[in-house]
Amino acid sequence: MRAKCPNCGGEIVENDRTFQCEHAYPEKACDFTMWKDSFKNFWKMDLTEDLLDRILADGEEVELTRKSKAGKEYTAKYNIAKNEAGYWGLNLVEFVNKN
Taking residues 74-89, what's their average pLDDT? Predict the structure, then answer.
């Protein structure tokens, strides 16, 4: 993986359930973790190494197309951020195409 941890600059490692910073376990020096199941449940797509590289590389924004609860497709730009609860995930930057 070419992208580095957005929190401390460490290497990102993959296991069965997460992508996380090399310093997240066992020393818990960094809290960057992206849960694959949570990502799939919310975004309805797999969190892959390629997608995470695109999101993390140079703070790049990534465009994703999703369906609203009403069933209409929309495209928006997202970046990586930590939410108020302390979990890492995608943050809406702007809508590109909202029908």
Answer: 90
